Amino acid sequence: MRAQFVLSEIGVGLRRNLTMTFAVVVSVALSLALFGGSLLMSDQVSTMKGYWYDKVNVSIFLCNKSDAESDPNCAKGAVTDDQKSQIKADLDKMGVVQAVTYESQDQAYKHYKEQFGDSPLASSLTPDQMQESYRIKLKDPEKYQVIATAFNGRDGVQSVQDQKGILDNLFKLLNGMNWAARAVMALMLVVALMLIVNTVRVSAFSRRRETGIMRLVGASGFYIQAPFIMEAAVAGLIGGTLACGFLLLARYFLIDHGLALADQLTLINFIGWDAVLTKLPLILATSLLMPALAAFFALRKYLKV
C-alpha cells in the first residue's frame, strides 16, 4: 500500500510540474551526453596514441653535398661511409632501439616523388639532393631524447627528428577540445542541478497541505520525502536514457554509417562499440543518483519534516 502511494505521488508530481520536469530531462540528457562524449574522447585519444606512437620513428638525417655548403651542422662535409658504419654500430648497441632501417638517397627520392609528385618543387629535385637517413624504431617512443643526445652534433649528422613531436601537437589539440567539452558539461550539470532543486521546491510547495497532514498523522520524514526524491530520480533516469541513446546514435551514424568516418579516415583507429557500451552503466547510475541526492539536500531546506 505504501509503495502504491509513493508511486501515485510520483506520477502526480511529474504531471503537475510537466514543464520543469521536461527541462530537467533535457538538461540532464545533454549534460550526461557531453559527459559520456568526453569520456569517449579520452578513450579515443588514448587509442590513437597507442596506435600511432607504436608506428612513429626517430629519423637521423645524414649530411649530403648540398648540406655541406649551406648547413652549419654539416660544415665538415658530407657523411662518409665510415661515419655511416659507426652510426649504425652505435645504434645497434643501444638498448632503447628496437629496429634500424637505412634509407638511401635514391629511396628517399622515390618516396618523395610518390608523396609529392604533383608539387612544383618535385620536378627540380634530383636524387643527390636528397638525404640519406636511418629510421629508428624505439622500444619506448618516449625515449627519443636518448637518441637526440647521442647523435645531435655528430660528424655527418644533419639533424635528428622525432615524428612523435608532430603527433603531440595533434593530441594537444584533441585534449584541448576534450577539456572544452568537459567545461560545457560542467556548466550543463550545474544548470541541471539548479533545475532539479527548483523543481523539487515547487513540487514541495504545491503539496504543502498534503505533507502537513502526513506529518500530523505521524508519517516518517523519509516517507514524506520519498515521492519528491523519486520524482527527481525518475526524471534524471529518463534524461540518462536519452543521453545513452545519443551516444549510441552518434557512434552508429558518425563512425559506422551515415558519415562513415571509419571508411573515410582509415588512418584513424576508432574506438569500438565495447568502449561505448562500458560507459552506459556509469551514465545511467549518474543520472539516477545525481538528481536523487540533489533532491534530498534540497528537501532538507525547503521541506520541514
UniProtKB/TrEMBL annotation:
Domain of life where this protein originates: Bacteria
InterPro entries, sorted: ABC3_permease_C, FtsX, FtsX_actino, FtsX_ECD
Pfam family, one: FtsX_ECD
Membrane-spanning residues: 21-41, 179-200, 221-254, 280-299
Membrane association type: Multi-pass membrane protein
Subcellular location: Cell membrane
Keywords: Cell cycle, Cell division, Cell membrane, Membrane, Transmembrane, Transmembrane helix
Main location: membrane
Domain FtsX extracellular: 56-160
Function of the molecule: Part of the ABC transporter FtsEX involved in cellular division.
Family the UniProt entry places it in: Belongs to the ABC-4 integral membrane protein family. FtsX subfamily.
Quaternary organization: Forms a membrane-associated complex with FtsE.
Protein known as: Cell division protein FtsX
